[in-house]
Design goal:
This protein is an alpha/beta fold. The protein has 6 helices and 9 strands.
């Protein structure tokens, strides 16, 4: 009996640690927070995933170094990311560089944003964050719009109200897609 237990223990595979996704967002009006919540719901719906969601100013160095994947949400300020989001990206780069020379190598990143008007620079803001992630050696995962085309990541136009149902649905689908891809590509 003892040899059977020893054999069973030797053949058992250890449980895989959950994939850790960090969602960091900056939100002054609450609109980017609502989009972040939808992204979180989508990612958390994927099995084997642990999601931490924090405002960018509240993200700790431990949050950064323990994350397998990072999603960042930003409002658009003057056609780019907000100053607080830029500060977060700088802190992320510095923290990862100190922790390991390869920085974000082997990790995934994604972006989402909100802007007050249709043409307020949402693409430029997402591209700014994507460029920062690529410089940190992350691989970037985009989203898919309602027509099946690839996109930089979800966005919401919030000129006079919160993200609408369609924008929130796209953000949730992005969170699911991001988590599924991250699980598939996990080293």
């Amino acid at each position: 009996m003892l040899s059977f237990l020893f054999l069973a223990a030797a053949l058992a595979t250890p449980a895989e640690a959950p994939l850790r996704i960090l969602i960091a967002y900056h939100s002054e009006t609450g609109n980017t927070a609502k989009l972040a919540q939808a992204v979180r719901e989508g990612a958390a719906a994927v099995g084997g995933v642990e999601v931490t969601m924090r405002k960018t100013a509240e993200v700790t160095g431990r949050d950064m170094t323990s994350a397998d994947a990072v999603l960042v949400g930003t409002p658009v300020y003057w056609g780019s990311v907000s100053g607080e989001t830029k500060s977060f990206l700088d802190r992320l780069a510095n923290t990862l560089r100190k922790a390991r020379p390869e920085m974000g190598e082997g990790r995934l990143a994604g972006v989402f944003c909100t802007g007050g008007a249709v043409a307020s620079g949402k693409d430029l803001a997402r591209l700014t964050a994507i460029a920062a992630f690529l410089a940190m050696r992350f691989a970037v995962v985009g989203g898919v719009d309602s027509e099946g085309y690839g996109i930089l990541g979800p966005q919401a136009t919030t000129v006079s109200n919160a993200p609408n149902a369609s924008e929130l649905t796209e953000a949730t689908a992005f969170g699911q897609r991001f988590a599924r891809v991250a699980r598939r590509l996990r080293p």
